[in-house]
Design goal:
The protein is an alpha+beta fold. The protein contains two helices and five strands, in the order E-E-H-E-E-H-E.
């Protein structure tokens, strides 16, 4: 399962799943091709550019096409 959401500090975030079965080599490659890099501090893939609604949809659709469940939001998650 993935969460795709814009974040003011990190750009577009594709939160990595807890299960290594979900983060397949093909999924990692697809995210890398889209310009994402792994951020170990937040345990998610991030991309500084392109974090508007179309970018959220494109990333979420790409993950869904690979068989993943995806939650997405156009608004950043509230800070705790």
């Amino acid at each position: 399962m993935f969460l795709v959401v814009p974040d003011p500090a990190h750009g577009l975030v594709a939160a990595a799943p807890q299960s290594p079965d979900d983060l397949t080599p093909a999924t990692r490659e697809a995210l890398t091709v889209q310009g994402f890099t792994w951020d170990s501090a937040i345990e998610a893939y991030t991309r500084q550019s392109g974090h508007g609604p179309d970018d959220v949809d494109h990333t979420a659709d790409s993950l869904r096409a690979r068989g993943h469940y995806v939650f997405s939001s156009y608004r950043p998650l509230p800070k705790r």
